[in-house]
Amino acid sequence: MEMIIRPRRLRKGANLRKMVRETRMDKSSLIYPMFVREGTGIREEIPTMPGQFRYSVDQMPYALEELSKAGVGRVMFFGIPDHKDPCGSGAYAEDGIVQKAFREAKKRFPDLYLIGDVCMCEYTSHGHCGILKGEYVDNDQTLSCLAQIALSQVQAGADMVAPSDMMDGRVGAIRARLDENGYTETPIMSYAVKYASAFYGPFRDAAGSAPAFGDRKAYQMDYHNLREAVKEAMLDAEEGADILMVKPAMSYLDVIARVKEVTDLPIAAYSVSGEYAMIKAGASLGYVDEASIICETAASAYRSGVDIYLTYFAKEIAGFMDEGRIG
Fold it and tell me: Which of its termini does the chain have fewer beta carbons within 10 Å around, N or C?
């Protein structure tokens, strides 16, 4: 049979397939989300996220050491305080849990790149991401608190801040507060496109951040919407965001691709707790091969346009890159 064009020619052998690979990945693009909590001697497994833990600050270095040895050099901290109040004051307290984590991590691992999640839901007694006015989150009153949280994290050692609250104008407010305090070089990775998603369930268990009433649909995005994602991303870019994030990742690859088309900023995606939990559950039942699914879902995110990938599988993916299974 006469055929000049045979696509299969470039699939013959692993060396050739890797040479012509269209999507390339690198450990430097991985960020690991870590939960830190008050107390000492604590390394408690999260029931809804098998293999993930909440660490007290004295136990955190052991996990950071493992990540560093695996080649994962970027970590995002989520704090779990003992005390919560209506205004989430623990989020910006000088001796807050996440501030203590930043100081210890920066002292013990100066080469690690540390990122702070800027939000209030873990710290408020009502579990919402801002200051309440009745049962509605007051957008403009919340901005000053978010800016103070970001500043406190940077003062404690954060190299980057990542606002995840979805208040209008928060990137501009944070940029202004950082700049007026001399932190003009600190980048902002905005959760620019964050959907109100059922995929967050295990995280809320891990961080104790479920809302006490209602939901977050008045400030997080409706998952039916794509054009709105572009609007949100461009607004954050105009306010000074340095990196734009889409969250979740797995079910929003079309959103990632669309946002990638309209901006020249780096694009991040967060493979969230529900994605992690589904893979772990399916693998534990023998329904899927865990390693293969981890590699395939990660590659799909990068293929859609991701430059930076936040994932609870960061250490595993780094290992698979070493093995040549992915990357």
Answer: N
Q: Cα–Cα distance between 306 and 326 in angstroms, integer?
A: 15
27 annotated active-site: no
Residue 218, φ and ψ in degrees, nearest 5: -80, -15
With a cut of 50, list the residues of the chain below it in pLDDT.
none
Residue position matching structure tokens 């008045």: 218
Cβ atoms of 41 and 1 within 8 Å: the answer is no
133 in catalytic set: no
Angstrom distance (rounded) from CA 166 to CA 252: 17
- Among residues 18, 27, 217, 247, which one is catalytic? 247
Residue 34 amino acid letter? M
CA distance 77 to 127: 18
Q: What is the pLDDT of residue 320?
A: 96
| Rg of the chain taking only CA atoms, in angstroms | 20
Per-residue model confidence (pLDDT) at position 149? 97
What type of residue sits at position 40? T
DSSP three-state, residue 51: strand
- Which residues touch 55 (CB under 8 Å, ≥6 apart)? 34, 35, 36, 37, 42, 43, 63
Catalytic residue among 100, 194, 280, 315: 194
Q: Which three-class secondary structure string do you get for 139-172? A: HHHHHHHHHHHHHHHHHHCCCEEEECCCCCCHHH
Q: What is the pLDDT of residue 50?
A: 96
Contact (CB, 8 A) for 122 and 91: yes
